[in-house]
Write a structure and sequence with these properties.
LPS_LOS_Heptosyltrfase, alpha/beta, glycosyltransferase, three-stranded parallel sheet, Rossmann fold, globular, Lipopolysaccharide heptosyltransferase I, about 300 residues, six-stranded parallel sheet, about 30% helix, transferase
Amino acid sequence: MSHGLHTFLEGHPLIHTLWVIKKDQWKQWSRLEDTVKEILSLKKQLGCVGYDVAIDLSGLFRSGVITWFSKAPVRLGFAESDEGSPFFYTHRIHGSMKIHAIDRYLEIARYMGCKINSIEYPLAPYNPAPGILQTLPKKYVVMAPSAGKPANQWPAEKFGELASRLSLPSVVIASGGEAGIADTVVAHAKGNAISIAGKTGLKELIPVISRAAFFVCNDTGPMHLAAALNIPVFAVFGPANPVRTGPYGDIHTVIQLDLPCAPCYAKYPCTRYDFRCMKDLSVDQVYDAIYRKTKAP
């Protein structure tokens, strides 16, 4: 996995070894020499371990190659992967693209003979009371206004207006590089939001999110962390497909306009339809969805 995110898994009792790669660097032609050296080193090291089984849940060409590097006699992945990764598998499992990603991953577990009647989210050890908690209100909502893809981002100004209407203050989370988005939310929240963007790692976010009354977000990574912690999620969706990547569980709410062009899976805001899946979704609609579930003015 890429640098930085691996710290979230450090110390996990179910993980013996973490293999960390610079996957973003692999896309840079200017770093080609370093990338080739890293790939060759990874191939050599993985091949020396003696793995029995390699499982690829990503279905990318890169991840398929890594399963091959493992020299595992059994290499599992999805038959529907479209980047050529199935070429590297010894066993290809059919996982429907019409179900949630978690249920899709469980199909591989089922194939291996695992029981999948209950789902648990074991987390790596973390500090349940980091210092950041001392700076937060006693009761609060957590907002995650950023998103991995620009097209999945509801305007930060609307998040701010939403925060101004809630009875509880909002704690806005984001990476340090996205602090500007969090600042925009705070600027439009009329004093009812604070930003802790860039002040926590993923492990510090766990206790912050676990104490929230509920979680408001775009389609983003921390959304799944909130769902795993059983915190009610209100997720704004535009071009993404909540059936596949929405918050997993019955207590969560997806807020999405019913448009014939959605989901389109766009990475960037569209010009053909003026990005109406996000632009036309009003603060009133999101607020009303929250109010109906929480009955909190």
